UniProtKB/TrEMBL annotation:
A Gene Ontology biological process term: response to hydrogen peroxide
GO MF entry, a single one: heme binding
Extent of Basic and acidic residues compositional bias: 517-529
This protein's GO CC annotations: cytoplasm
Lineage: Bacteria, Bacillati, Bacillota, Bacilli, Bacillales
PANTHER family in the cross-refs: CATALASE, CATALASE-2
Location of the region described as Disordered in the Swiss-Prot/TrEMBL record: 1-38, 380-409, 504-529
Ranges of biased composition (kind: Polar residues): 12-38, 380-390
SMART domains: Catalase
Name by which UniProt lists this protein: Catalase
Family: Belongs to the catalase family.
Domain (Catalase core) ranges: 19-413
Source organism of this protein record: Paenibacillus albus
Keyword Metal-binding recorded: yes
Length: 529
């Protein structure tokens, strides 16, 4: 066992001697070995070669989405109820059953579209991913700060991300590309209404909501299921969003503000808290609703499906190393424990394949053996090998010669069921069709009317600024969508664009070309050196 707590002389002073990863003490970390003090280097510079080759490989592939992130550890404490009712009739998931039961968690917050070192003030959905280390293994609740999404079918996801990411030729993000895609995807109107409002720039990670976005299921002891949506609501810290002008002020001072805010709050003992609330609905199509409950572009009306508290999460410990914990943290929507299940939400089905697949590509085949991803309970599988396997997933007393199941020679055995299986019944054609009740604009109008005057003004200004650089057919499609959502909504965007064209001024967001011209005009000239 490697013990660094005692110094080389046997004292209580920690041994802080620099070594290689082979444990060799390093006596000179300033100079490589050369022929003379200015001659060529030699191939046997082992310390240098080990050091530089590791440095060359310090970065793993950046996440395609959610690249910029921050994280923290904490606990989730269950209330033992869902609202005022016992939780057991709805789900047999153990972490919810007892009041006061605590489950360790790790949370990663992020922006979605922008790169790993992009400003945290940019307009973008924020990721809100929680890993619960439960007694039945890990549960990952992977969502965003906004409760809905742009699309409802996963087939559109790669195209959506391509449209939102930088242009493949200029490597610059372009709002015309963004609106080109969403103007041909009317289901995105509701999300655009949120994103271009102040809700598109949370003030920081602590003061934002979270949501699982997709519809899941809870399953009880009898195998009976209900549909469920998850929501994280900030408690003592409240909710704050930024206007575009305010975000510009913050970015001018520090583009890492949200990461720093989270870290400093926890270091100071001002632990952020969120209450986990759920909305429940009987499992079925619900023809009485004007939308499909599996549609992730829709909100479930809280007056019909109230937010029911089930527990509280407190983040109370910062990571000891960013890369080891935050960057290598790997989540997946398919990581569920007994008592939790999937719904038939198409987007959820697509995400469930994609998330775990990308972790194997990004972090490695054995990413689940890393401490930040490994469950804090018994693990025993017959999976083995692959890059960077740390140890076999072998149970105590297991016959090491048997790496298959079933076996009568001391291999692993199947677990005893904790309750009846949930067995949904299907009787429909295999088809390629969108949901019957698309209703793409009604809730966007409801959301616009629910905004206060500041939020409405900011939304209109940001839309006018962004759409001013788009060609007419894109503008017309978007104005049509906004008008179908709410007549005043569409009218104000249309009038704003007309005024912007006449005055050549852009409202809300700056014209990217202006920055190019400004940089040419400004600057301090210098002589060569």
């Amino acid at each position: 066992m490697n013990d660094n707590k005692q110094g080389a002389a046997g004292s209580d002073t920690p041994n802080q001697t620099l070594t290689t990863r082979q444990g060799h003490p390093v006596t000179d970390n300033q100079n490589i070995r050369t022929v003379g003090n200015r001659g060529p280097s030699t191939l046997e510079n082992y310390h240098f070669i080990e050091k530089i080759t590791h440095f060359d490989r310090e970065r793993i592939p950046e996440r395609v989405v959610h690249a910029r992130g921050a994280g923290a550890h904490g606990i989730f404490e269950a209330y033992g109820k869902v609202g005022d009712e016992p939780v057991a009739p709805y789900t047999r998931a153990k972490l919810f059953q007892e009041a006061g039961k605590q489950t360790p968690v790790f949370v990663r917050f992020s922006t979605v579209i922008h790169g790993a070192h992009s400003p945290e003030t940019l307009r973008d959905p924020r990721g809100f991913a929680v890993k619960f280390y439960t007694e039945d293994g890990n549960w990952d609740l992977v969502g965003n700060n906004l409760k809905i999404f742009f699309i409802r079918d996963p087939l559109k996801f790669p195209d959506m991300v391509h449209a939102f990411k930088p242009d493949p030729l200029t490597n610059v993000q372009d709002m015309e590309r963004f609106f080109d895609f969403v103007s041909l995807s009317p289901e995105a109107t509701h999300m655009v209404t949120f994103l271009l409002s102040p809700w598109g720039i949370p003030a920081n990670y602590r003061q934002m909501q979270g949501s699982g976005v997709n519809t899941y299921k809870w399953v009880n002891q009898n195998g009976e299921a209900v549909l469920v949506k998850y929501h994280w609501e900030p408690l003592k810290q409240g909710i704050k969003n930024l206007l575009q002008s305010e975000a510009n002020e913050v970015q001018a001072l520090n583009f890492n503000h949200a990461t720093l805010d989270l870290y400093q709050a926890i270091e100071a003992g001002d632990y952020p808290e969120w209450e986990l609330r759920v909305q429940l609905m009987t499992d079925g199509e619900h023809p009485e609703l004007d939308f499909d409950p599996l549609d992730p572009t829709k909100l479930w009306p809280p007056e019909q499906f109230p937010f029911l508290p089930v527990g509280k999460m407190t983040l109370n410990r910062n990571p000891e190393d960013y890369f080891t914990e935050v960057e290598q943290a790997s989540f997946g929507t398919g990581v569920l424990v007994d008592g939790l299940d999937f719904s038939d939400d198409k987007l959820l089905q697509g995400r469930t394949f994609s998330y775990s697949d990308t972790q194997r590509h990004r972090v490695g085949t054995n990413y689940l053996q890393l401490p930040i991803n490994a469950p804090k309970t018994h693990v025993a599988t017959n999976q083995s090998g692959g890059q960077m396997q740390f140890s076999p997933d072998r149970a105590e007393g297991q016959n090491p010669h048997v790496n298959y199941e079933p076996s009568s020679m001391g291999g692993l055995q199947e677990a005893v069921k904790q309750g009846s299986d949930h067995e949904p019944h299907y009787d429909a054609k295999l088809t390629r069709q969108k949901l019957d009740r698309a209703n793409d604009f009604k809730q966007a109008g409801d959301t616009f009317r629910a905004f206060d005057s500041t939020e409405q003004d900011e939304l209109i200004g940001n839309l006018v600024g962004a759409l001013s650089g788009c060609k007419n057919d894109i503008r017309e499609r978007m104005i049509s969508y906004f008008t179908q959502a709410d007549a005043d909504y569409g009218r104000r965007v249309s009038e704003g664009l007309l005024h912007a064209d006449q005055s050549r001024t852009l409202s809300g967001q700056s014209n990217p070309g202006l920055a190019v011209d400004k940089a040419k005009q400004l600057g301090h000239e210098s002589d060569r050196y």
